[in-house]
Amino acid sequence: MVKLRLKRCGRKQRAIYRIVAIDVRSRREGRDLRKVGFYDPIKNQTYLNVPAILYFLEKGAQPTGTVHDISKKAEVFKELRVNVNQTN
Description:
- This is Small ribosomal subunit protein bS16c.
- Keywords: Chloroplast, Plastid, Ribonucleoprotein, Ribosomal protein.
- By secondary structure, the protein is of the alpha+beta class.
- The protein contains three helices and five strands, in the order E-E-E-E-H-E-H-H.
- A hairpin with a 4-residue loop joins strand 3 (about 35-40) and strand 4.
- The protein is globular.
């Protein structure tokens, strides 16, 4: 099973997180399938590769709670509903 979750980067006390698609059995800094964005909690900046996130969500990937909140704030799920309605 694939999850969309955070991968910690940066230095001590200055964490930056990559949002990655990764196998559930991998550890936090393990090998990811694809990088789909980043999140900087200190500067409160995010970058999301929306087409890549939508691709993984359509294939059944589950976002973690934090990634779900970040994606919801960026309105990724509205685009997912639009794509689903267009295909039906």
